[in-house]
């Protein structure tokens, strides 16, 4: 019986090649999208699970009134967790130090991007293998450094036999000597802990470690639970720890607390610092929904074509029932056909996904690999089979219900329910397709908006360069004077922070800023401060709204004056004109002398922030600074060469890195541009699949009305009128789908 069913199924496929091809190709495209997105989702959900004790590792963070939740914690927290919290077996600190300038000689320094300070027990918590060196000893000694093979090759040109070798680290005005203590494997792509070099935590300056302060925040703290069940008691134990180390007034809640998060959940949490499509749960839902849309459209094709061809297969049903076939057997046969098409599509879709994976990685900015894991492949096969059953379920029930006597006498009636179902499914199909089309248009309009929106400043031909060391910052006026002497340079400004690079945020309660604030809220206000110079406003063409900018003729402006933006004035309850002359205290006492127009310091995805500008540098700040240079449009190359030459005077062996301010802001939308291309791609695929189904239905309708078409042509009907006759019903359905899709989208 089974053999006969298979023969019949294959014979039926061969007899109706075009319909079989439409179904298989549509399903295959849908399956390929589903497989690729499954690889992406599987990768996202697998982050940090490769650690042997990943289910017992927790990430600890700080929550406060002024800053909300953040990863940074007080230095003493790790030790206190081990000593005072029964749920914690071990704890370790990790501090990010950013990029380093390293060399195997005292010149020709190489920029290494991702460096971290880690403690000796780092390798006891995390399953990163040391390829060379001893994990228990490598990080115990100050000035020890561990390299990845790629970092070692960048510095030494090789990655073997490096234990004990010297590395020179250029830090501001000094060169520090480090010693290679190990070679560590590259961090897997699905690790939230990424690194190029690991430094012994004792190498970090004592001032930066702030060993005894519970009010300073720097390291990221990780804890190892005594058991997975111990996580339930962490919240209460953190409350007790806060009471022990912070003074809290009676009847008041502490102004900060600690929280924990399982390491395996960090990647998709709000604490993740990922960019692109990784670490964002919304993208999992978005791309998963798109895959379901496309698969749904492919399923609609199968149901429509299967029910439309009822009159062709109904005699087969009648003969089989007359020969004794039960309805369940017929249902099994038709479901088998559907599943066979689905599995064939799965195989072809798998081939398509393998071929498309490099392009998919480029589009998504990922490093996915085709998984040969048998469980993953079986899971996809199961999904394909289920899709086949779901797609074939209604056609199987519909075809198997006819009575053999009426079928064989040509007296059966084609039910109107099937016709209505086909029409409904076509409407749903094109509703989904139009939703994707409109989504693509909306994304395009948003991207166009990001490129055309006035940011509140002019960054065209303005190049930004990080100053090489504190000497350049301390002698910045001299550097500016030298650069202004060149014809290829129009203006020069040196600031601590610039649009697109405001890294410092300070929070103040309104009453601590000024006694003249006019706001009812006592919630902390977060400000973005920066040290500027007299040329900053002119260079970036930022307009004054009230008051004035800093003047060289007024000595008080050097250390007692602030300029704020409109958002800062509003946050303090002042109109721009009212803010002028107000006494304020942003860590240092001074007076507001001017209010500038709002300007964006981050991407348009973030709200405009309150900004404070000042000429003086508070003693609590540690600034290296940024050089902003406005170049002549026709001498950009020459201007860049001059800047590089002048900065070499301060750090001869330091690489010259620069970026244009306008391009820096455009680069902030790299993810959105990728999203736009992805939505367009998936939309095209959905349209192709939907049109394939519509073509199949149209071709079948034309085939069933061959005699009518012949008679109309004999009677003088033109081809255009015949095409209009055959297509008007489908056009109505497509139009209805469009009408339904617009408000939904």
Compact summary:
By secondary structure, the chain is an alpha+beta fold. It has 25 helices and 22 strands.
Protein model, in words:
There is one protein chain. The chain has 25 helices and 22 strands. The model has no long low-confidence stretch (mean pLDDT 85). Helices cover 47% and strands 18% of the residues. β7 and β8 form a beta hairpin.
List the helices and strands and how they pair.
Layout: H1 2-15, H2 17-45, E1 57-64, E2 68-70, H3 77-84, E3 88-103, E4 110-118, H4 122-125, E5 130-132, E6 144-147, H5 149-156, E7 166-171, E8 174-184, E9 197-200, H6 206-209, E10 220-225, H7 234-245, E11 256-262, H8 263-266, H9 281-308, H10 310-322, H11 327-364, H12 374-399, H13 404-408, H14 416-452, E12 462-466, H15 470-474, H16 476-484, E13 489-495, E14 506-508, H17 510-513, E15 525-531, H18 536-540, E16 544-547, E17 561-565, H19 566-571, H20 576-579, E18 583-585, E19 589-596, E20 611-614, E21 626-631, H21 636-648, E22 659-660, H22 661-667, H23 670-704, H24 706-714, H25 719-744
Parallel strand pairs: 4-9, 6-8, 15-20, 17-19
Antiparallel strand pairs: 1-2, 1-10, 1-11, 3-4, 3-7, 3-10, 5-8, 6-9, 7-8, 12-21, 12-22, 13-21, 14-15, 16-19, 17-20, 18-19
Helix pairs in contact: 2-9, 2-11, 2-23, 9-12, 9-14, 9-23, 11-12, 14-23, 14-25
Membrane topology: Multi-pass membrane protein
Subcellular location: Cell membrane
Domain ABC3 transporter permease C-terminal: 289-402, 681-744
């Amino acid at each position: 019986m089974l053999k006969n069913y298979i023969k019949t199924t294959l014979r039926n496929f061969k007899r109706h090649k075009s319909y079989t091809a439409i179904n298989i190709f549509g399903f295959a495209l849908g399956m390929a999208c589903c497989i690729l997105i499954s690889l992406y989702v599987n990768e996202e959900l697998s982050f940090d699970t490769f650690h042997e004790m990943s289910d017992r590792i927790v990430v600890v963070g700080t929550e406060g009134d002024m800053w909300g939740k953040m990863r940074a914690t007080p230095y003493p927290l790790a030790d206190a967790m081990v000593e005072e919290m029964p749920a914690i077996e071990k704890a370790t600190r990790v501090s990010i130090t950013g990029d380093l300038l390293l060399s195997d000689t005292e010149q020709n320094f190489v920029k290494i991007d991702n460096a971290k300070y880690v403690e000796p027990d780092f390798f006891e918590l995390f399953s990163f293998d040391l390829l060379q060196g001893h994990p228990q000893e490598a990080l115990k000694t100050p000035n020890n450094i561990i390299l990845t093979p790629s970092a070692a090759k960048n510095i030494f040109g090789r990655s073997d036999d490096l234990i004990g070798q010297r590395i020179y680290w250029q830090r501001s005005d000094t060169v520090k000597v480090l010693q290679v203590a190990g070679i560590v494997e590259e961090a897997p792509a699905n690790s939230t802990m990424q690194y190029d070099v690991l430094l012994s935590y004792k190498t970090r300056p004592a001032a930066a470690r702030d060993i005894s302060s519970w009010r300073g925040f720097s390291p990221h703290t990780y804890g190892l639970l005594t058991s997975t069940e111990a996580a339930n008691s962490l919240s209460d134990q953190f409350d007790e720890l806060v009471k022990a180390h912070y003074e809290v007034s009676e009847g008041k809640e502490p102004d900060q607390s600690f929280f924990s998060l399982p390491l395996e959940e960090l990647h998709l949490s709000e604490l993740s610092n990922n960019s692109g499509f990784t670490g964002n749960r919304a993208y999992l839902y978005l791309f998963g929904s798109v895959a379901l849309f496309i698969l749904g459209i492919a399923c609609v094709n199968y149901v429509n074509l299967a029910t439309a061809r009822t009159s062709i297969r109904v005699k087969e049903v009648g003969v089989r029932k007359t020969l004794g076939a039960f309805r369940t057997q017929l249902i099994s046969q038709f479901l088998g056909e559907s599943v066979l098409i689905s599995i064939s599509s799965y195989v072809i879709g798998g081939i398509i996904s393998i071929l498309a994976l490099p392009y998919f990685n480029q589009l998504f900015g990922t490093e996915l690999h085709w998984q040969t894991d048998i469980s993953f492949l079986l899971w996809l096969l199961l999904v394909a089979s289920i899709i086949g059953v779901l797609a074939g379920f209604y056609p199987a029930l519909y075809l198997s219900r006819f009575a053999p006597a009426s079928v064989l006498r040509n007296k059966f009636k084609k039910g109107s329910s099937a016709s209505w179902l086909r029409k409904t499914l076509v409407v749903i199909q094109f509703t989904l397709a139009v939703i994707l089309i409109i989504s693509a248009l909306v994304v395009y309009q948003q991207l166009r908006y990001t490129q055309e929106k006035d940011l509140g400043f002019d960054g065209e031909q303005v190049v930004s360069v990080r100053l090489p060391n504190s000497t350049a910052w301390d002698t910045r006026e001299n550097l500016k004077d030298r650069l202004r002497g060149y014809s290829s340079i129009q203006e020069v400004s040196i600031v601590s922070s610039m649009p697109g690079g405001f890294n410092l945020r300070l929070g103040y309660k309104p009453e601590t800023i000024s006694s003249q604030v006019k706001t009812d809220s006592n919630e902390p206000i977060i400000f973005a401060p920066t040290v500027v110079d007299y040329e900053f406003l002119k260079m970036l063409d930022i307009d004054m709204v009230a008051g004035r900018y800093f003047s060289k003729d007024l000595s008080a402006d050097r250390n007692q004056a602030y300029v704020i933006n409109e958002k800062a004035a509003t946050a303090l309850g002042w109109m721009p004109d009212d803010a002028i002359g107000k006494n304020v205290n942003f860590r240092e006492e001074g007076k507001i002398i001017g209010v500038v127009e709002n300007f964006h310091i981050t991407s348009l995805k973030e709200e405009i922030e309150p900004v404070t500008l000042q000429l003086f540098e508070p003693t609590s700040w540690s600034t290296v600074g940024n050089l902003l240079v406005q170049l002549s449009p026709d001498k950009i190359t020459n201007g860049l060469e001059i800047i590089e030459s002048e900065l070499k005077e301060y750090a001869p062996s330091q690489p010259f890195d620069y970026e244009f301010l306008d391009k820096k802001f455009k680069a902030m939308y790299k993810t959105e541009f990728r999203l736009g291309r992805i939505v367009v791609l998936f939309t095209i695929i959905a349209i192709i699949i939907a049109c394939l189904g519509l073509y199949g239905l149209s071709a079948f309708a034309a085939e069933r009305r061959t005699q009518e078409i012949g008679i109309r042509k004999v009677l003088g009907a033109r081809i255009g009128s015949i095409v209009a006759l055959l297509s008007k019903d489908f056009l109505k359905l497509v139009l209805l789908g469009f009408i339904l899709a617009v408000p939904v989208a």
